[in-house]
Structures are given as structure tokens and as C-alpha cells.
Amino acid sequence: MTEEKMQGEFGWTGEIPTDAKERYSRLLLKIVQRKKQVDELIKMLEKDTNWLTDPASTRFHMSQKFGLLIHSVNVTEILLKLRETLASKISEESCVIAGLFHDLGKVGMPGKPYYLPNTDDWEIKYRGKKYVVNNSLPTVSVSVRSLYILSKFVPLLDEEVQAIVYHDGLFVESGKEILGKEEPLTLLLHWSDYWATKVIEDKKVPSSSKDYFDKI
Ligand SMILES: [Fe+2]
Ligand SMILES: [Fe+2]
Predict the structure, then answer these.
(1) How far is the CA of 141 from the centre of ligand 1 (A)?
(2) Is residue 186 within 8 Å of 98, Cβ to Cβ?
(3) Which residue of 54, 67, 106, 213 has the lowest C-beta tally within 10 Å?
(4) Contact (Cβ atoms closer than 8 angstroms) between residue 75 and residue 193
(5) How far is the CA of 120 from the centre of ligand 1 (A)?
(6) SS3 16
(7) What is the pLDDT of residues 86-130, one digit of tens each?
(8) Domains by residue range for the chain, with CATH
(9) Rounded-to-integer distance, Cα 110 and Cα 44, Å
(10) Ligand 1 geometric centre to CA of 161 (Å)
(11) Contact indicator for 183, 162 with CB cutoff of 8 Å
């Protein structure tokens, strides 16, 4: 992916993949009603966190510079496609806010990054673990921290709150708390997150064998 020096919309200067930046900016245009609040959030994120350059994990999906931004954009684009097909009454703004910021907690807290570069060469080489989690942060689940940071700036609908907090679905124990009571946005966000991680970011090509039945 090409990278170029460019001025962040909110004053951030540095290297960012052009493609990701464009897709991110395009998604932000869909936020109209709460634009002022989201602009304030982004200003803070660009000033006090590594939102634009953080990885999305220590060694799994998008464990790379800009990984969190690229993953958040991937999830949001899939979520908008699902919305269009299955649930057009959910606003695009809701999808963009829930999609872009569902993993916001991965930035850590202002001035205290959640991910730090791994300094253990053996782990990097043999385990592919390029980042470690910052132990100096109090332990709070990523999704709760996402909600905490986001809601300090942006008023949220109840459905957005549920979608963000429970976006991991039943992959985590807390998913059972809302079993059978998931809002449509929660289901769509969960599936978008999983599809982005397992198909788009793992580079799987969805396909069916055309000649399978001819061979048996
Ligand atoms: Fe997540
Ligand atoms: Fe995610």
C-alpha cells in the first residue's frame, strides 16, 4: 500500500496509507447530525492518542502500523453494505459511528497507549508478536473503553451502545448477557467485524469449486 506525507484533516501530520485515509474521510462525511461532536473526538484522538497509527492487535489481525484505522474502515464499509441489504432503516450515521469506533478502546487512554512496540526480538521473530499490551493501564475490556471514550464526546443511541459493548458476540463470555436480546445493529456490527477480520484481513477469497461434482 502506498504511503505519503499528508496533513491530517484535524492537524495531524505524518505518514498514512492514502487509500485508508480516503476511505476514512469518505465515511466521516456520512456523519451529519453529530458531526460537531465527532470532530471534537477526532481532534482529541489525533492530538492525544495514536488513533491513526495504532495496530489492531499484538500479533493477530492487522498487527501493523495503521492497522486499527484500516480495520475500523473495513468493518464500517461491510456494515454499510449489510445495512443497505438488510436494514436500511438504521441510519448510515449510526453504522459509521458504531463501525469506526467499535475498537476505539485499543488506543488506550489519552497519553497512555494500549499497544506498545514489542522489544523482545525472539517474540517478534518466532511468534510474530510485534506489539505488547501496556500493563500500566488499568484492565478494562476494549469494548467498554471504546464506549467510555466515545461517549465522553458523542451522544449515543441505546442501540449504538449495545452494538459497541457487545460487538464480540459470543466469542467472549459477556456476550451471553444479551443472548437473544441483540439489536439488529449489534448483529450487523458483530458480523461485519468478524468478516473483516477473517475474510478481508486474512485475505481469504470467498468462492465455490465449480467442477467439484464433475470429479466425483
Ligand atoms: Fe473488537
Ligand atoms: Fe474489531
Answers:
(1) 9
(2) no
(3) 213
(4) yes
(5) 25
(6) strand
(7) 999 999 999 999 999 999 999 999 999 999 999 999 999 999 899
(8) 52-203 (1.10.3210)
(9) 8
(10) 14
(11) yes
